[in-house]
């Protein structure tokens, strides 16, 4: 029989907790009503991530410990998760829409023969049914997806859609899971190397310089890169600029790209279509530059400058030390 618990997968990037997992704990608590929220942690015995997880208020941490998790394949992780899902029968199971989460979640979904919605932008409950919101039709509309007949209801959620909020004096119970580690016979991980990707740096950056169609000139792009280097930031782009070979989809901000949450976001030559602005809602301070005083981007900005992006960058670079 299915219980009403909401599970959140705690992704470990070597010895660090993936921030999206903590963001999902906060969101799960917000929509849970009276449903208990469980953090699902697979870790080697050399790590103790429980103390950090507890700060974000889950009702329980289900801990699976085995030293082989330090170099486990996605198939081995999925096998362990299948065992505990079968034991506890949760209502829903949420995963970060990271490279690791997008690989692990469908493997588990296939084992459980349930539904999985990828790259969600919002979540809500209608009774015990998880409503999973994601873009479709070229990102022009948002659709609600449900899985009425199978449990757990599974979803991956994009990074930085929600904010992780600590819960003071959280009373979290740590439960040790019973499972058997089944080594995969067809694959062995020999070693791991931390990958520095544009996706990771963009979603985690504290300063982002974003370029739109109106800033797609070689001089402007070069100045934007200089400014990002001086300020310790990164360059992101709107969807049209991903057609330029010097940019990749990993650098795209917006509904079909990355969601950013920097302390400072500078928009250059961006009109402000909703497909872009949905990806910047969690930015703390937004400065926008556009030659069109009526550009919609100014409605989402804290500060605006009506003028040429190249001249703006030249002036700002002269001031930044």
From TrEMBL:
SUPFAM superfamilies: Adenine nucleotide alpha hydrolases-like (SSF52402), DHS-like NAD/FAD-binding domain (SSF52467). Residues 6-199 form the Electron transfer flavoprotein alpha/beta-subunit N-terminal domain. The keyword Flavoprotein applies. FAD binds at residues 213, 238-239, 252-256, 290. GO terms for biological process: fatty acid beta-oxidation using acyl-CoA dehydrogenase. Pfam families: ETF, ETF_alpha. Its cofactor is FAD. The keyword Cell inner membrane does not apply. Signal peptide: none annotated. It comes from the Bacteria. InterPro entries: DHS-like_NAD/FAD-binding_dom, ETF_a/b_N, ETF_a/FixB, ETF_alpha_N, ETF_asu_C, Rossmann-like_a/b/a_fold. Keywords: FAD, Flavoprotein. GO terms for molecular function: electron transfer activity; flavin adenine dinucleotide binding. Binds 1 FAD per dimer. SMART domains: ETF. Belongs to the ETF alpha-subunit/FixB family. This is Electron transfer flavoprotein subunit alpha/FixB family protein. The lineage of its organism: Bacteria, Bacillati, Bacillota, Bacilli, Lactobacillales.
